[in-house]
Write a structure and sequence with these properties.
Blueprint: E1 3-8, H1 15-27, E2 33-38, H2 43-48, E3 57-60, E4 63-68, H3 70-83, H4 85-88, H5 99-102, H6 108-122, E5 128-132, H7 137-143, H8 145-155, H9 157-161, H10 164-180, H11 192-207, E6 212-218, H12 222-237, E7 242-248, H13 254-259, E8 265-268, H14 277-281, E9 296-299, E10 304-308, E11 317-322, E12 325-330, E13 333-338, E14 350-354, E15 357-361
Parallel strand pairs: 1-5, 1-6, 2-4, 2-5, 6-7, 7-8
Antiparallel strand pairs: 3-4, 9-10, 10-15, 11-12, 12-13, 14-15
């Protein structure tokens, strides 16, 4: 299993530059690195100084790069999907639909890119995968899909299990998901329990800072700082650890460091020509990610749950309790707290939002 690193922040702040420098940094220590970029434009290859294709290409020793092209990834499975229509459906509806058309659906780029990262991670060929995604809410939504889907599954389990439409579509869901999203359902029936287990595994991976972590990137521009803080809060909401903040194209700033405390700020100089070394030397200490603020802490003795929600104010935070879990909504993200047995069945007695922490008492 690889360590997956990604960067969040406003467009134009240098996320791609940081991703390339990070990939070069890890490769210099002999680690097998995959640098993956989402999108089909020429900018990535130009900045990298090498031609990158839709399959992993060796750029330098220990470093391979790939550029995800969504229509290409979709077409790889699309013909298989269309071939299944006669077997599973009486009324064909895929005949006039093509992969390129489905690819324009909102979020499809991120969905296929995240799935591709998952596949390369599972291949065992890489020690580190640096994902240069869009760095925005679409990326976070896809990373947090296990959290969101799990919430709906638990609430609508009985409806799903007893639904005629689910029974009618379940034979078709299995091969389609296998063809398009490469989910292997061959060993088991498609049931809510199986899906719940799969989602649970995804949540555990996301919450493990040694497996996946994000780093914020900003400049001194106030808008870039505000977006970085907001992405920080959204990342914490889905259980993704943010390991640090990178201040690009300037020297260290005490003021900006204070804005993102307790994260460690790394000031990175402006890239000059093809010289990557000054940037590499000023990157965050990736080994210290375990010391970053944890998205959630549960204190059974005090009967409290504490969530770190930077970038939000009290008016943006909403608390909902449903059965054995509590849902916290902040911004556009939802965090589902499935309470441990010692707290299940207890009602929320109070909640306090102070110093970027939401403390829930039972």
């Amino acid at each position: 299993m690889a360590q997956i690193l990604t960067f969040l922040g406003k467009g134009g702040t240098g996320r791609t530059t940081m991703a390339i420098a990070t990939a070069k940094y890890h490769a210099s220590f002999g680690r097998r690195v995959l640098l993956a970029s989402q999108g089909s434009g020429p900018e990535f290859s130009l900045l990298l100084g090498a031609s990158v294709a839709s399959e992993p290409t060796e750029i330098e020793p220990n470093l391979q790069a790939i550029q995800f092209y969504t229509p290409y990834m979709l077409e790889q499975g699309w013909e298989q999907v269309k071939s299944l229509e006669a077997k599973y459906l009486r009324t064909p509806f895929f005949k006039e639909v093509y992969g390129q058309e489905l690819a324009v659906l909102p979020g499809m780029d991120s969905a296929f890119a995240i799935n591709a990262v998952r596949e390369y991670d599972a291949s065992g060929k890489y020690d580190v995968i640096v994902y240069d995604g869009t760095g925005d809410r679409d990326t976070l939504r896809m990373l947090g899909i296990a959290e969101i889907a799990g919430w709906y599954l638990r609430r609508f389990r009985q409806v799903l299990e007893g639904s005629d439409i689910v029974r009618a579509l379940s034979p078709f869901v299995q091969p389609v998901s296998s063809a398009v999203l490469n989910v292997d359902w061959s060993q088991t029936e498609f049931t809510p329990d199986q899906l719940d287990d799969l989602l649970g595994e995804g949540k555990q991976t996301l919450s493990n800072a040694k497996r996946i972590a994000a780093y914020l990137v900003t400049t001194e521009d106030p808008a870039a700082i505000a977006v970085a803080k907001y992405r920080w809060g959204e990342a914490q909401q889905i259980g993704l650890t943010v390991g640090g903040i990178v201040l690009n194209r300037r020297s260290f700033s005490e003021t900006i460091a204070a804005e993102f405390a307790p994260l460690t700020l790394s000031a990175v100089p402006t890239k000059v020509g093809d010289d990557w070394q000054p940037i590499i030397e000023n990157l965050p200490d990736f080994e210290s990610v375990a010391n970053a603020p944890k998205p959630m802490e549960i204190d059974l003795a005090a009967q409290t749950v504490r969530l770190f929600l930077p970038g939000f104010d009290k008016k943006q935070v909403k608390l909902i309790q449903s059965g054995p879990e509590v849902t916290v909504e902040a911004g556009e993200q939802r965090h589902n707290i499935f309470l441990p047995p010692a707290l299940q069945g207890k009602s929320v007695k109070g909640a306090k939002f102070q110093n970027q922490y939401l403390t829930i008492s039972f």
